Amino acid sequence: MEGFSLKSRAVAFALAAGAVVFILALLAGAPKAGTHGQVLSALIIAIVCGVMSWGSAERAIAGTAEAVDAVSDRIVQAAEGDLLSPTPNSVSATLPMLATAVEGLFAQVRANLESVNALAMYDPVTSLPNRVKFRRDAEQLLAGIPHGSVAALLFIDLDRFKQVNDSLGHAQGDQLLMMVANRLRHVAAGEGIGGAGSELPEPIVARLAGDEFTLLFAGLRDQSHALRLARRILYGLSEPFHMSDHSLDIGASIGVALYPMHGGDLSCLMRAADVAMYEAKANGRNQVQFFTDALAAQFEDKLKLERELRQAVERNEFELVFQPQLDVRTDTIVAAEALIRWRHPTQGLRMPGSFIAAAEENGLIVDIGGWVVDAVADTLARWHRQGLSQRLTFNVSPRQLERPDFVDRLRLAVESSGAPYSKLEIEITETLAMQCSPAVLESIARLRGWGIAIAIDDFGTGYSNFARMKDMPLDRVKLDGSLIQDIVRSSETRAMVHSMINLVHGLGYEVVAERVEDDAQRQVLRVIGCDLIQGYTLSKPVDEQIFVDWISGRVTPFDQSRRVRSITSA
Ligand code: C2E
Ligand code: CA
Ligand code: CA
């Protein structure tokens, strides 16, 4: 009967009843042989019966139809978001079971939605509001702040959480986060803001991500009130945390932004507190830093640089220059280091010192480094075709190497250009070499397996573990320029560099001295056994054409240095 309305069923029922009565009436009069009068009276009886049955069916069905219509309307309302209004009375009166079922269903949906909301709003580890709930509550709190009163947004980043998590495991890490959350709750509650009898709103404590927490206090008197609060939190977090069988000192860096001075809305305040927090970390951790005008200007500069760097990647504004390396044992140029330059559309040539660190921080180094890999492969392939045998060495930053696709990208670049693997060298910093993950070490070993040489750059600036170095896939170690500076004047430095060279040789690697600026340094390095040198004593980094001309003997080193000087002063 699908598709038939209740009304049409009533009509059908009435017609059927009428037809049955009509047949029965005819059969009842049959022995007297049917006359027109008999047929007519049977028909009249049938019509009366049909009308009577239609009337009674219609009454019952009309009530049901009304209830069904009311339930449909209610379901439509629920679909539009109203899960609270009661089921209409007409449904409970006419179809009580349906009314109960609908109420039960809505109650279940309401309960499910509430638990989904709770999951989406609270951090399961600390039970603190998460970022979503924090934003919502903080916006409400800021909207209700009385004119003239101050609010403080604190961004807190734990200083040594990563080490705890890495060395003790995630379970202990989670336990520590719970303890931190409890201390924050405790300090916030102890401030007397929002407590019983207080007219000021309750502070908000939330966990934004990982080891980042935030607090928002409204209704503070002034900046010094905010400072006192932040210091209390800092002291609270510098107390050791007692775990089951040991205690942990972690400390925190706290950035503070004030409303309305540092931002008129939540997004501005969060950005300002974040900037201040990074400054606190950069200044040596375990401290409180307020947002300042100087930080605002720095932040603007950073954003501008990021924007311009993004454009530079898109518009291909980078170039490579090349600085030769001399083998002091044979007096021949055996390699060149590729160094990046940025031809800025309005500021001229920019040195890597002014943008590489920023690119590492904002992640653009991955794209920039990708460009370098392609350019290095193309250059080396060109040299190879021209019959040059020099190695080409280039700098790779940690964020590039940590990308799982780095090795494949490099292979693609080398193979499509036709550059020989055996003439490529990768420079990784000492810190990366000492701290990299097993996965990164494996990537380095794969590269070396193809014949690419591996060098540790800026050696002597960080901390090195010789046992680890012994087992690393390595070919060369580049002594940092700061070690070379005093090598002529200071016998201690000379002795130290001498023993470093012996140590590196003992491990089976070659030594390259960087930033060798004059003949005297060059002579000392030769005497104490250094293998290769690089620096202004040979040449500044130069354009490819100059380097190639020099190597192929078309220009003497003297001409070359004159040309270099004219290029750098241009
Ligand atoms: P680095 O790898 O230690 O490069 C050596 C730096 O010392 C170069 O600076 C070079 O021009 C400079 N230099 C060379 N000889 C002398 C000298 O005799 N005296 C002095 N005072 N300096 C000398 P540059 O080209 O400004 O590069 C600076 C740093 O930028 C590099 O240090 C490297 O860490 C980074 N860098 C350069 N190119 C790239 C790149 O393609 N990728 C990445 N990730 N980093 C790069
Ligand atoms: Ca280097
Ligand atoms: Ca270096």
Strand order of the largest sheet: 8-9-11-12-13-14-15-16
Second CATH tier, the architecture of the largest domain:
Alpha-Beta Barrel
Q: What best-fitting shape do the alpha-carbon axes yield?
A: elongated
Assign the structural class, choosing from mainly alpha, mainly beta, alpha/beta, alpha+beta, or little secondary structure. Answer: alpha/beta
Give me the count of strands: 16
CATH class of the largest domain: Alpha Beta
SS field, number of helical segments = 22
Which sheet architecture does the biggest sheet show?
Answer: 8 strands, mixed, barrel
Helix content: 55-70%
Content of β-strand: 15-25%
CATH superfamily of the largest domain: EAL domain
Radius of gyration from CA coordinates: 41 Å
Mean pLDDT: 88
Count of folded domains: 3
Task: Calculate the terminal CA-CA distance, rounded to whole Å.
Answer: 93 Å
Low-confidence stretches: 562-570
Bound ligands:
ligand C2E, calcium ion
* Named CATH topology of the largest domain: TIM Barrel
